């Protein structure tokens, strides 16, 4: 009898949910005269993305390109209205000037580790961001540089031992190893063995970077799921990070900061404070208090690992791909490394030396323009708010998407956008563009907190790798297709290249 009642209730809920999705409000954008493609029943405009037939990158770029005269485009994900921004003045206003109305990303996992910098909300986010920002100052990065450099050296030793004079391979395997090693060394204080991949970590990484259908439900009935404490992520992910943090903090370091001066030491200092206080937006706000539990610590370790690992590995692989295709750029970069690092600074890799690599910076930015690893800056409105320069008034919890790839390939800002051309990032050319036309790290107070770390980590890799190896296209080249099952940009068949050892005199 009880089972029958449960089944009938569940069935009724499912039917109600389906009816809501099928018949719900699809007139939302019409009231503001916002144009957009006609939504279909159930999935709205996102059928192919939700069924993982196309990547979210391709979908949003197509929508961006097919509405050249619109400042904004109205979409529906299932039944949820989403406003896609095309106009850069609006992007600037929403990301920077009106930031307080758009603090949150609307990403909820319902997971034990939800209180992390990337998905936390409102004053909890403010509290965490204030706490973690000092981790990325030049002084702190200086302290970590030797850890990253050691990873670069170990990578070279490994490559020298395993690569004959020349080889064709998927370079993602190389850049991923470097990214795992450098993030592990700096985030977890773990020195990994380059020759022995950690199978458990590989498994967890696969889970972290896979699209979960369950997460789509948050577009359908977010409040219900929150009330049910619905967990959209596999438990294995939180278990892995909680165990790992316990191992490093409690067992290896006995609860006392070591002298490695890595993220884990900084997290340990935070743990010893037992609670964080602050996060006030306005004078009248109550102080937010966040007890620093092992789960809160593990949540930060997870987000720094997740946000920092795949992003750098992918960016570096695409940079090598473009350098292989553009031999003149590779040669110019090699000459810069030779002069600035080896001739001028005797091979010493300080932050100052890395900063002097101005052409490298242009190459890196052009790579991020063509291959932004995250497709959207996501925001939800905190209250009823007017979109500047339009008649649109959003209500609380409406979604805003900023299509990074669409903007990066817009001919208005980047003529001949499919051409790899680092000159686009010469100081004069940067000055002449809208300041929001380049946003691989997002914009405003919630932009990527790890951007400076990523810049150091990636420049260091390119210095080490390119001073020992040259890259060329493989014998058979194929156009990239991207994997719709991944949350970040990833080439379905990897990034195959020919690598040849340089004769270093
Ligand atoms: C090439 C490398 C990277 C790229 C392209 C990248 C890109 C991004 C983007 C687009 C965002 C969202 C920004 C927004 O919504 O406005 C973000 C957020 C974030 N990134 Fe990165 N990232 C990179 C590397 C890293 C690294 C190395 C770390 C950590 C060591 C990191 C940690 C984070 C964190 C914690 C956030 C959330 C910040 C917050 O919500 O306050 N990222 N990143």
Automatic annotation (TrEMBL):
This is unspecific monooxygenase. It comes from Chilo suppressalis. The lineage of its organism: Eukaryota, Metazoa, Ecdysozoa, Arthropoda, Hexapoda. It is found in: Endoplasmic reticulum membrane; Microsome membrane. It holds the Pfam family p450. Its EC number is 1.14.14.1. It is a peripheral membrane protein. PROSITE patterns: CYTOCHROME_P450. SUPFAM superfamilies: Cytochrome P450. Its main location: endoplasmic reticulum.
